[in-house]
Amino acid sequence: MLSGFVPVVGRPNVGKSTLVNALVGSKVSITSKRPQTTRNTIRGVLTRDEFQIVFVDTPGLHKPRTALGGRLNELVRGSLADADVVLFVIDASAPVGPGDRRIAASLIEADTPVVVAINKTDAASPAEIASQLTVAAEWDLAAYVPVSALDGDVPGIVDELVSRLPEGPAYFPPDAVTDQPDQFLAGEIIREKFLDRLRDELPHSLAVVVGDMEQRKNGMLYIPATLYVERTSQKGIVIGKGAELLRQAGGDAREELRVLFGTEIYVDLTVKVEKDWQRRNATLDRFGF
Ligand SMILES: Nc1nc2c(ncn2[C@@H]2O[C@H](COP(=O)(O)OP(=O)(O)OP(=O)(O)O)[C@@H](O)[C@H]2O)c(=O)[nH]1
Ligand SMILES: [Mg+2]
Q: What is the per-residue pLDDT for 229?
């Protein structure tokens, strides 16, 4: 069969994770309107008789301002080193910028084939799409495909990728969509529900660490999660007035986890302050970055 690894790269917030979910046909990676939502490399697998594509969703490439930011960029570079084909995502609804150009330049240097997805076509006029295409065409990469990941309108991407894959083994069982441990996935879904409801800079300061999950005798899956913020003032915001935010976001997470794991869920949330964790290497190690 044809098989290989396809890192999905681009600036923060261009829709990489939404696109991976649309291509895999299952939610493997959380998404949000906040930049820098994805903080790990997340594999999403698409298997057919003739091929297996292992998509590797990656954090948005950006100018790092913290130790975490630096680590995230390194993670993307590492995933590019193992690439068979690269899927480079740009935003059709915003002009091609210096961030996109920097990424394009580094991709041109490596000689892995690059397929460019021009995403968010639903939010762009035909003239905007055409203009972004014209600018990006100058990079002379392997293929250019306009898509709307949000609408699940992603025609042609899979064909463009498969036609450039080498012969290889199936890296994952045919029914696998991801290789993430349940514990990690649960933490991500909890984090997503807080990102949906938090404003300003706080999303960057939030980390979620899930402890040992336990199937209880009453049929409930018990999920203990600690939410880490960077300052005492943020703790109150995450909890909310009368613990309202904690209850609402916790409820959203419980609902999605119930469907995902097919069992009743008890999400036990604790909020702690871990001062400036994004900037401290020891904490980043402990949080698994
Ligand atoms: N209108 C529109 N919005 C989209 C589309 N794809 C993604 N989005 C939105 O763009 C925002 C960012 O999407 P993500 O998939 O989280 O973006 P990302 O590139 O993974 O972001 P990072 O992980 O932060 O780098 C979310 O609000 C998505 O709903 C699209 O095709 N059309
Ligand atoms: Mg993402």
A: 96
Tokens of 256: 């999605």
Q: Strand ranges (DSSP E) for the chain?
A: 2-9, 42-47, 51-57, 86-91, 114-119, 143-146, 207-210, 214-215, 221-229, 265-273
142-192: per-residue pLDDT in tens?
999 999 999 999 999 999 999 999 999 999 999 999 999 999 999 999 999
Cα of 216 from ligand 2 centre, angstroms = 33
CATH level 2 (architecture), domain 2-162 = 3-Layer(aba) Sandwich (3.40)
CA distance 265 to 71: 33
| CB neighbours of residue 227 within 10 Å | 23
Domain span(s) for CATH 3.30.300.20 in the chain: 182-287
CA of 82 relative to ligand 2 center, distance in Å: 19
The residue among 266, 275, 267, 261 whose CA lies nearest residue 233 is 275
- Mean pLDDT within 62-89: 94
Q: Contact 284/67 with Cβ under 8 angstroms? A: yes
**CATH top class, domain 182-287:** alpha beta
pLDDT digits (tens, 9 = 90+) for 107-138: 999 989 999 999 999 999 999 999 999 999 99
Task: Report the atom number in ligand 1 closest to the C-alpha of 10.
Answer: 19
Band of residue 201 on the pLDDT scale cut at 50, 70, 90: confident
- Closest ligand 1 atom to residue 21 Cα is 15
